């Protein structure tokens, strides 16, 4: 007889046990248990592939993953909101521990102190990096964090207009519009140097460093917003915050960040985690989960989810947000990253990014036909005006085995957004410069 | 009292926070120096002078977080029958797949041509989810269940506006619904009307008919319901709502019961979200990440949140492409979904195949009915019908053993608590979901523990109020936490 495949590795019930369970239930067959489903719709045909063994499956996934032209194999100069940074080896084994990986939202704090204390560490780290008073347990990603910040500013001010600076990540602006429009919130664009706002504006939304990598005048934006009775909400790069002044130091009211930059793999866009922090006077308007410290009957200190009357499971349609499952595990990942880097390591990474990016920019600027058309201070990303359309430049880079450049020709003529971080060596940068120099 | 591993770990553990462990000069990582000519830093006034972060070594970090992890219950260590959360075993091959270099290093802004591998995974997953729900279109972009709800309701809103019916503002939601449903409806600009169940636990059709007017936008409905029942009125409810010009949203949180048994599209649902972190075995991570793909009918497909993956023959080899649906509600997040979660679900479905899907629902439903049969003598059962993937009991029967007391005492026996006090329509609710990945021995041990707890309550009606006794900490003062919020470490 031909050997048949072994299947169902995740279901313990054997045929004999199923019969035993059915007897206890008082049913003749498993199908009997589904009798409430209308007969005409019950057990429909399913066009799905046959099962694969784990061995065959891994070969298939390996094949699919290698179809990508990816930064595990090729140097990358692509950023535009998602950054390749070095991930220390100690992070994954901790985050993938089953006790963290396979637990639920900590509804039973007595058996969830690991998750809760980790969340408290994330809140502490978020508040410290952004220079803010309080932070929550995290949002889905940087884009939704910024969108929820704008909604929160509307709740705080009871105004329904949002002014978005035109140097904010365009994907984030789209998310803000998706979130704002059903609530009747009007979203309008302003230049970074704007000196006035429309009447009844709830908040100014800005990015620091901005989408093109440059440092905005956050002080001026704060004055603009506060002078009009509005709040200032920012999206930030947490690595840049180790080098540049914090949003809190400029009086930002709600500061958010895409924490992917804290050593989280790009993973084609997620899972990431959004950092969300604000002034303490607004804490009860915050969306999402918040962990707090308290004590038990014996006076021992411990952590719980707190300020829950803001949330959907209590407040239902009057909640500050609909968030339930968020992205706790990635918050843990970024927390462990910052713990390993520490005060000196994170500053070191930020300075390496700055040094290498400025070296790359200065070398590219020497090439005939290339210019740096945007003025001001940048961190690790900058715009290059190319002699040829950016799409062609990126293609030439791909042919040379290099990933990157993000086409920003909709903003800057022949503009290509390049990113250089600590993972890029001088040799890679020199190769990039040589490839660009070969294009006329 | 039994000393559990968690209890022992906690007693020995150093509970100090990272900042309290910090010693100036320590570092937890090596980093290279700069290999480029030195570049001038910007003016000092622009630079950070007040960066407070911990300074600890790698060994200290590893020990701290390892010790923290040991304070948790998890599926890998404990039976976790948390109702409506589908805490099934999470296969390790899923994590291996997400960690493959070609996936982990894939940048979301790379061109389609460079990303054919990830796009093929997403396209095939879209197809599997469409087949399982009987729907025409799928977007994988929503980042969690509630995020899928928001996307779904926004599509209903957009479709009604396209029909010239934008004035419809009323969303019906059963009383038993999860809190995210009304919250998502409100975020989408809808006014929520609560609908009761009838005496059998199905939705009250007369109540639906009464609300089915020209102002009706639709209904948000969970099938099977949060009572663990397959709602026999769902098909008729869809007819009523459609007849009145509304659309039907299906919350797929409980799809584990229905895999391969019925396609929600066949019952008349217009949009359904799925929780990949429940039904399709991706780990919950202590509160995410999840993924909440939305599956829709032909009519709603143009409104899907973008981007979605489309396939067409192409000379350049770029067969798969990210595209924005023609009348998309827009982006709901930064990129194209939680790919690291999507690839885990793809791995799971590909390993199990179509027959595997039916085996999941068969065993999940069988296990839940077994627990129902075994636990009936101990608790009140509000609705005596065959259940689906979970069973909801009421603990109102015995003095000294409220739902919270039973739940907390279960922790002492090494079992995570059921979902308690939900759904709200059942007094002292205990919602138990065993899933298909638990063995009969585990279910029997769980029943034995509940029996002993019942005896403990009978012997001393105050005993359970002090539970849990063996966990790292006992019941925490939540009122104090809210009254004096202490939400981050601060320098004393």
Verbal overview:
The complex is a heterodimer of chains A (440) and B (492). Chain A folds into 2 domains: 91-335, Type I PLP-dependent aspartate aminotransferase-like (Major domain) (Aspartate Aminotransferase, domain 2, 3-Layer(aba) Sandwich); 342-437, Aspartate Aminotransferase, domain 1 (Alpha-Beta Complex), CATH 3.90.1150.10. Helix content of chain A is 35%, strand content 13%. Chain A has helices spanning 15-25, 54-66, 91-95, 98-101, 113-130, 142-157, 170-180, 218-227, 312-315, 328-365, 390-399, 426-437; strands at 134-135, 161-165, 186-190, 203-208, 231-236, 254-258, 274-278, 291-295, 301-305, 381-385, 406-407, 415-419. In chain A, strand 4, helix 8 and strand 5 (231-236) form a beta-alpha-beta unit. In chain A, helix 6 (142-157) crosses helix 7 (170-180) and helix 10 (328-365) crosses helix 12 (426-437). Chain A is globular, with a radius of gyration of 26 Å. Chain A starts with 14 loop residues before the first helix and ends with a helix. The mean pLDDT of chain A is 97. Chain B has 492 residues and is α/β, with parallel strands linked by helices. Chain B has 15 helices and 12 strands. In chain B, the strands form 3 sheets. Chain B has a 7-stranded mixed β-sheet with strand order 1-7-6-5-4-2-3, sandwiched between helices. In chain B, strands 10-12-11 form a 3-stranded antiparallel β-sheet, with helices on one face. In chain B, helix 4 runs antiparallel to helix 12 (339-375) and helix 6 packs parallel to helix 12. The two termini of chain B are 37 Å apart. The model of chain B has no long low-confidence stretch (mean pLDDT 95). The interface between A and B is large, with 202 and 201 residues.
């Amino acid at each position: 007889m031909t050997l048949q495949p072994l299947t169902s590795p995740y279901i313990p019930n054997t045929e004999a046990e199923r019969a035993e369970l059915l007897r206890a239930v008082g049913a003749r067959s498993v199908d009997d248990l589904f009798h409430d489903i209308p007969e005409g719709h019950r057990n429909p045909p399913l066009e799905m592939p046959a099962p694969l063994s784990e061995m065959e499956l891994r070969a298939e996934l390996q094949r699919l993953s290698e179809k990508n032209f990816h930064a595990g194999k090729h140097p990358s100069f692509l950023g535009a909101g998602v950054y390749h940074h070095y991930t220390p080896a100690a992070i994954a084994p901790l985050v993938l521990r089953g006790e963290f990986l396979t637990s639920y939202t900590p509804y039973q704090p007595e058996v969830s102190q690991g998750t809760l204390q980790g969340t408290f560490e994330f809140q502490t780290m978020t508040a410290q990096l952004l220079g803010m008073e309080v932070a929550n347990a995290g949002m889905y990603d940087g884009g939704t964090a910024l969108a929820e910040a704008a909604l929160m500013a509307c709740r705080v001010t009871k105004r329904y207009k949002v002014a978005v600076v035109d140097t904010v990540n365009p994907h984030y602006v789209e998310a803000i519009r998706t979130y704002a429009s059903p609530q009747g919130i009007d979203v309008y664009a302003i230049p970074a140097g704007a000196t006035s706002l429309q009447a009844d504006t709830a908040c100014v939304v800005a990015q620091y460093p901005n989408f093109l990598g440059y440092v905005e005048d956050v002080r001026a934006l704060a004055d603009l917003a506060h002078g009009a009775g509005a709040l200032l909400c920012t999206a930030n790069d947490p690595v840049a915050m180790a080098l540049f002044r914090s949003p809190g130091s400029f009086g930002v009211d709600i500061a958010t960040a895409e924490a992917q930059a804290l050593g989280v793999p790009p993973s084609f866009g997620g899972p990431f985690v959004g950092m969300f922090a604000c002034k303490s006077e607004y804490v009860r308007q915050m969306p999402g989960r918040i962990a707090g410290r308290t004590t038990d009957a014996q006076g021992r200190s411990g952590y719980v989810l707190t300020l829950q009357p803001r949330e959907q499971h209590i407040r239902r349609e009057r909640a500050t947000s609909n968030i339930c499952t968020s992205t706790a595990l990635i918050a843990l990942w970024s927390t462990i990253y910052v713990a390993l880097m520490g005060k000196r390591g994170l500053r070191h990474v930020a300075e390496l990014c700055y040094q290498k990016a400025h070296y790359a920019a200065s070398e590219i600027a020497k090439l005939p036909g290339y210019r740096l058309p945007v003025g001001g201070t940048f961190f690790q990303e900058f715009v290059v005006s190319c002699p040829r359309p950016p799409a062609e430049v990126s293609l030439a880079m791909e042919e040379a085995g290099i990933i990157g450049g993000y086409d920003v020709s909709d903003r800057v003529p022949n503009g290509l957004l390049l990113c250089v971080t600590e993972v890029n060596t001088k040799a890679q940068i020199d190769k990039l410069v040589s490839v660009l120099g070969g294009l006329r | 009292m039994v000393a559990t591993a968690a209890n022992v770990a906690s007693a020995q553990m150093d509970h100090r926070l990272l900042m309290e462990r910090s010693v100036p000069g320590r570092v937890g990582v090596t980093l290279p120096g700069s290999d480029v000519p030195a570049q001038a830093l910007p003016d000092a006034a622009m630079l950070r002078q007040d960066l407070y972060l911990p300074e600890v070594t790698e060994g200290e970090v590893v020990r701290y977080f390892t010790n923290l992890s040991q304070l948790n219950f998890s599926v890998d260590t404990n039976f976790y029958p948390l109702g409506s959360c589908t805490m099934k075993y999470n296969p390790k091959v899923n994590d291996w797949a997400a960690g493959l270099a070609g996936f982990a290093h894939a940048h979301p802004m790379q061109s389609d041509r460079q990303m054919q591998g990830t796009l093929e995974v997403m396209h095939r997953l879209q197809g599997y989810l469409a087949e399982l729900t009987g729907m025409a279109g799928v977007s994988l972009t929503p980042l969690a269940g509630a995020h899928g709800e928001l996307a779904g309701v926004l599509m209903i809103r957009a479709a009604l506006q396209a029909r010239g019916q934008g004035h419809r503002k009323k969303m019906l939601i059963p009383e038993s619904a999860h809190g995210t449903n009304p919250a998502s409806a409100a975020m989408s600009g809808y006014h929520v009307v609560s609908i009761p169940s009838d005496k059998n636990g199905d939705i009250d059709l007369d109540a639906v008919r009464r609300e089915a007017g020209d102002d009706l936008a639709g209904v948000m409905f969970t099938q099977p319901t949060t009572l663990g029942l397959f709602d026999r009125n769902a098909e008729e409810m869809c007819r009523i709502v459609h007849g009145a010009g509304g659309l039907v949203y299906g919350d797929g949180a409980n799809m584990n019961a229905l895999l391969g048994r019925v396609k929600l599209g066949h019952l008349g649902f217009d949009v359904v979200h799925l929780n990949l972190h429940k039904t399709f075995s991706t780990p919950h991570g202590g509160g995410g990440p999840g993924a909440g793909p939305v599956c829709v009918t032909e009519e709603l497909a143009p409104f899907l949140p973008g981007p979605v993956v489309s396939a067409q023959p192409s000379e350049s080899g770029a067969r798969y492409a990210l595209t924005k649906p023609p009348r998309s509600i827009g982006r709901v997040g930064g990129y194209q979904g939680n790919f690291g979660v999507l690839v885990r679900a793809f791995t799971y479905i590909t390993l199990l195949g179509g027959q595997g899907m039916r085996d999941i629902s068969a065993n999940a439903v069988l296990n839940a009915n077994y627990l129902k049969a075994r636990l009936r003598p101990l608790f009140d059962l509000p609705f005596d019908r065959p259940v689906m993937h979970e069973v909801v009991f009421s603990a109102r029967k015995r003095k000294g053993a409220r739902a919270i007391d039973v739940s907390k005492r279960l922790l002492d026996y090494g079992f995570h608590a059921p979902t308690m006090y939900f759904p709200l329509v059942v007094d002292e609710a205990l919602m138990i979901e065993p899933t298909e990945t638990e063995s009969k021995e585990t279910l029997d041990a769980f029943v034995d523990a509940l029996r002993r707890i019942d005896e403990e309550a009978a012997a001393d009606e105050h005993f359970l109020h002090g539970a849990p006794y063996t966990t790292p900490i006992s019941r925490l003062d939540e009122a104090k936490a809210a009254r004096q919020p202490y939400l981050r470490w601060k320098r004393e």
